[in-house]
Amino acid sequence: DAKTTQPPSMDCAEGRAANLPCNHSTISGNEYVYWYRQIHSQGPQYIIHGLKNNETNEMASLIITEDRKSSTLILPHATLRDTAVYYCIVRVAVGGNKLVFGAGTILRVKS
Amino acid sequence: DAGVIQSPRHEVTEMGQEVTLRCKPISGHNSLFWYRQTMMRGLELLIYFNNNVPIDDSGMPEDRFSAKMPNASFSTLKIQPSEPRDSAVYFCASTKTSGGGNEQFFGPGTRLTVL
To answer: Do A95 and B4 touch (CB under 8 A)?
Structure first.
């Protein structure tokens, strides 16, 4: 699985958009970008994933660059409850494949 | 759906004792994963099963660790004998591998403390 690089921490004001970057310059053509987050003392939670097109769901939007070497997770209106560690993971979406977690980005949403 | 269920939520034991962690995956999911999280090593995969068969156990630290999945609705992770360095939060996750995005659903974890 391709390696990802994320900033160790970011701050965001409550109500503003949080934009979390991820670099995955060695991504292969059949690898997807997945985002998970882990709120303190809880298990990781799936947020969104994509291959090459931008994706949006009720939680967030995922913007993937045309060359697929980087992506950005956007939380459109961050709340205090969005304070968590956010993990960007790249892997093939083949059944049962494992997730390899890096250190992630600690997002602190402040009032 | 109740989600992934893990028990116990907290376990405190003494070095040398046997520890058994339990997991019930989401009904209909056919892949199950055991992860361990520590401050030093972060989240790491220990083992995963597809259709009750162990596929990759390369993350299992040593022979003291063993995992079983006797049926589609139950899995155990056993540590025998336990050591203080096994203290961690152990997460179980499950997914449905046919169709969909294969997103994994995690349980609340078991916090293990070995004294």
So the answer is: no
